[in-house]
Amino acid sequence: MTRITTDLFMWPYQYSFRASVEVLARGVLEELGAPGFANALLVGVRAPGSDNRNAVCVEPEKERWPLDLFAGLPESVESTVAGHKLQNMFYGDEASMRDKPEWIRQDSVGVAVALALAPFDVANDVTSFCGGVRRVDDFYVATVVQIPNATLARFPALPPFPNSDENQSYGYRGLIQAAMSAVLKEATTHLTTPEPGRDSYGAMRSRKEIVQIAANGFLATPVLSIGHRYVESDIFAFLNLVASMVYEGAKGVGRLVFIDQENPSIDFLIRFREPVPFTEPRWIRKVLQMAAPEVDIITDGRHAYGLGKLQGFHDENTQDAFTVAFLDQHYWELKCGQSILLRCRMGIPELFKEFTDQQTFKDSYHRMFPDSSDDDVARILELVQFQISLPHGSMVVVSDDAQREAIRLAKQGTLIVPTPLSKVLLGRISGIDGTVLVDPYGICYAFGIILDGEANDECTPARGSRYNSGVRYVRSRLNKRLAIVVSEDRTVDVVPKLRPLASRSVIEKSISDFESASRKNYLRPRNWLDEHRFYFNNEQCIRLNNAVDRLDALPYRDSSIYISTKRFSPHPDMDDGYLVA
């Protein structure tokens, strides 16, 4: 076995530990429905009294994070230790006083590492999440996960709490923030084990478990924001339980408003003489049956106090009111004002996102229908947004031969005189079983159309008949077709999948980096390439597969994790229209 050495050595399994954290962070993001772009690094600061030759170590070394980035880090740690707020704290028990210096140093290393990374974050448009610090051999080690700001910007999150007190917790700003905190808490716990990283497989919780932990942590945010106190309860599990219940055969559809019962914004319809405790989920479900679209259950996260609603003058920016809307059995969402912060289906939490990035939709639409104007695209996009807002599932198909298809499928739907599709018309005809058929310019030719087409690899039993019908129809014809599918559970799909433009130069650099990579630094280009498989032509796929074969054949290093790569093949829908300089 070939042994690969490192100059910035902290402990034998630092590489595998860091790689495990990175894989977990990326998997958690994907589980939530976000792009799995995340990088992990370790920063170690030499412990006092150690004679190790390195004052600071970075894992991985010689990659994105140069050692110069942490110049002056030991001095920053000592300065933070000297001025730490716990220096003047006196505990009533001997054990806490004994542990206080260690707590101060651990926290000071974390603060100093975050300060050192701040310029890097700005320069690279990322956000660093720093976990707890623990001592491993000669070093105090901080685990850091970095996420592109573009990922954070795609999903609704709370702004900083207004008039916040630094000594008061107001919860997490978003589900991604809660998820990264859960990942880093898991990593910090693993750092306290003997030889962290040695038994990486199965040592940490799965990404599904981390997502559940994150969702429960995030659900403490409404209670902390409105009452400034922590509630020791599993609100996430409670909401899932209420969402699962039926009352005399009826599904629970209604809303809870998390708010202080004395908030002047509440207009109570009725108050309960005795508040209904959250320890009685069946009782809460019975109360939910009384709620109507204009009346909500008023709660502070511990008790339900009555039925009422928020008055129109309430300012959502105060973050003192959160809404949980039960949309269907096993389906609910958390909102603050108009921002949907979390959705949960069948007990599985996910981020809320628009059906697609608008610029990506416009680019893809012009590629599919090059004769369409900007006004055509804007009109279609406005109709799609309206379609999504409708209370029922529906499908709209845009086809460059819509008129001919309407005639061909006349026996399977209702033809109309060609009419510009408006919101009013879409609202009337989309509730009929079948599909609304329009051309690229927004002219409607038929509705209630039952589509045909053969099954293909993109059909899936995990989705309903509406989605699979759209996939079969779009994929079975040579003409350009675009299906916008809104399922009954409010899932939105665009078929074929809309993809953003990609840079030729970035693709070439990533392929070259992968071709020259070693087992030590292959992960970054490999992960990028794995996430952008759609964009490679046949020649590039051959180069990539040769690089995969070369890496697979390399000898393993001690205690290393090597993730093999699925072979590359060109995508049938890829063409040069997806590429820019």
Describe how the helices and strands are arranged.
Blueprint: H1 14-32, E1 39-46, E2 56-59, H2 73-82, H3 94-124, E3 126-136, E4 139-148, H4 149-153, H5 175-191, H6 207-218, H7 220-227, H8 235-244, E5 246-247, E6 250-251, E7 254-259, E8 266-277, H9 281-288, E9 296-299, E10 303-310, E11 321-328, E12 331-336, E13 339-345, E14 348-350, H10 358-368, H11 374-389, E15 394-399, H12 402-408, E16 414-420, H13 423-429, E17 435-438, E18 443-449, H14 465-475, E19 481-486, E20 492-495, E21 502-503, H15 504-515, H16 523-531, H17 538-553, E22 579-580
Parallel strand pairs: 7-9, 15-17, 21-22
Antiparallel strand pairs: 1-2, 1-4, 3-4, 5-6, 7-11, 8-10, 9-10, 11-12, 12-13, 13-14, 15-19, 16-18, 17-18, 19-20
Helix pairs in contact: 1-5, 1-6, 2-3, 5-6, 8-9, 10-11, 15-16
Report on this model:
With 581 residues, this protein is an alpha+beta fold. The chain has four domains: 14-202; 224-350, no CATH class; 358-495, DNA integrity scanning protein, DisA, N-terminal domain (YojJ-like (1, 3-Layer(aba) Sandwich); 502-580, no CATH class. 36% of the residues lie in helices and 22% in strands. It is built from 17 helices and 22 strands. Helix 2 (73-82) packs across helix 3 and helix 8 (235-244) crosses helix 9. It is flat.
